[in-house]
């Protein structure tokens, strides 16, 4: 773990990971799509149940990405490690895209099933707050010129946002919401039939690996970008 | 059996899938393109120094 924290070692160890994980993600998503479109339609939701195979994985990844952002921010803040700061910096925009997808695909499911595009219930509102934290972290970092101060300020905000994660998870239990309760990660096991659980699982794994691939690739790019900045500074001082 | 007839919910189902495909392929393309351009720029700079 700590060995990975060295940027040079990280670059050596993760060479080719982006492409490998991306390929694996594409295969899993392809298999999930095939199973999703061969599964029978739901007796209540009809074909809109197939939106779940992209909505739920996007929502899972939006939460997982924020956990990753929080962990990287904690490491950057406590140990002041540049690799952790780079990981936090590039994690936020990727997580924000998955959050937007979770909200948009949920809305496209909600209109035919709930009769409305949007309702301010606890689950939907807390996911909007998650998106605002992502955007806030990105905006705060972009608004401060000094890279070190920007990273620390963004890390503090990201850590504050971690409070929102259990609120999102348990919002459907704590409050009366239009959003249905958990049907996969439950103490008494999934309540979903295997016809839907398999494509959902494959898509969830595929989305997770896609996030991992994009995150690793973006961290590698950020490390390189910082080397470019350092080299240019050295050249400017030398000249 | 592959079932692509989503009626009467076609616009919602295909809209969600199209949006997801555009966003994820677009995000991947932006990250890969930036990775390539930054790697090439660093290689040029290191060759110069």
Keywords for this entry:
heterodimer; A: 239 residues; mainly alpha; globular; B: 49 residues; 1 helix; 80% helix
Describe the structure.
The complex is a heterodimer of chains A (239) and B (49). Chain A is mainly α and 239 residues long. Chain A contains 8 helices and no strands. Chain A has helices at 7-13, 17-38, 52-79, 82-114, 122-143, 147-161, 164-174, 194-238. Chain A is globular and about 70 Å long. Chain B is 80% helix and 0% strand. Chain B has one helix spanning 10-48. The chains are: A mainly alpha (239), B mainly alpha (49). The interface between A and B is medium-sized, with 38 and 32 residues.
**Radius of gyration of chain A, taken over Cα atoms and rounded to an integer in Å:** 20 Å
Mean pLDDT, all residues of chain A: 94
Spell the H/E element sequence of chain A.
HHHHHHHH
Distance between the termini of chain A: 39 Å
| Major sheet size, sense and barrel closure of chain B | none
Query: What is the 3D shape of chain A?
Result: globular
Q: How much beta of chain A, percentage-wise? A: under 5%
Average per-residue pLDDT of chain B, rounded, comes to 95
Would you kindly provide a brief summary of this structure?
The complex is a heterodimer of chains A (239) and B (49). By secondary structure, chain A is mainly alpha-helical.
Layout of helices and strands:
The complex is a heterodimer of chains A (239) and B (49).
Chain A: H1 7-13, H2 17-38, H3 52-79, H4 82-114, H5 122-143, H6 147-161, H7 164-174, H8 194-238
Chain B: H1 10-48
